[in-house]
Design a protein that fits this description.
Number of domains: 1
Helix content: 55-70%
Number of helices: 7
Strand content: under 5%
Number of strands: 0
Structural class: mainly alpha
Distance between the termini: 45 Å
Order of helices and strands: HHHHHHH
Radius of gyration: 16 Å
Length: 163
């Protein structure tokens, strides 16, 4: 299989902005998903996929800020949240306990497409969406505080997402 043409090196904001958009779309879906008695997993997979992509892109924004090339972000890391997280920590991202929790809950099935393709016999644990949202909002603030002007043109009310 031929390798796709190289990406020009993107600015960190081109990872950060869609990370926020995935998080915003998750918040909309979470608020508007009807409750169905006996179906605690109603729309769980698309919502988990949105959270996984949000986390992946926040970590890629950090690594791009730390001069990891766009090609490496695409080809070396792909959708491997655990690898992104490990290297983001090595490059100065403070990893608090809750961020470890989010990575451990989202990474395995994000990397193996388990949130996109349901496999018979797979185990999907319950997820506290409010907790994960709080963690991603905190990660957003951490990155926004570290990278000058990254939020320019991409403002969002994080408090509204936490509700």
């Amino acid at each position: 299989m031929a390798k796709r043409p190289s990406n020009p090196d993107q600015l960190p904001k081109f990872y950060f902005a869609p990370a926020r958009q995935y998080l915003q779309l998750f918040a909309i879906a979470q608020k508007q998903t009807p409750k169905i008695a006996g179906d605690e997993f109603h729309l769980a997979f698309p919502k988990r996929m949105l959270l996984g992509f949000s986390l992946e892109l926040y970590l890629k924004a950090w690594l791009r800020f730390k001069d990891v090339s766009s090609d490496d972000l695409q080809y070396k890391y792909g959708h491997k949240i655990e690898s992104l997280f490990t290297d983001a920590q090595a490059k100065g991202l403070t990893a608090w306990r809750e961020l470890h929790d989010a990575v451990s809950q989202l990474a395995p099935q994000h990397a193996d497409f388990g949130f996109r393709y349901i496999r018979e016999g797979s185990f999907y644990m319950e997820m506290d969406y409010n907790y994960i949202t709080w963690i991603l909002c905190a990660l957003d603030e951490t990155i926004a505080d570290a990278i000058p002007d990254i939020t320019s043109g991409h403002e969002v009310d994080l408090e509204s997402l936490r509700r």
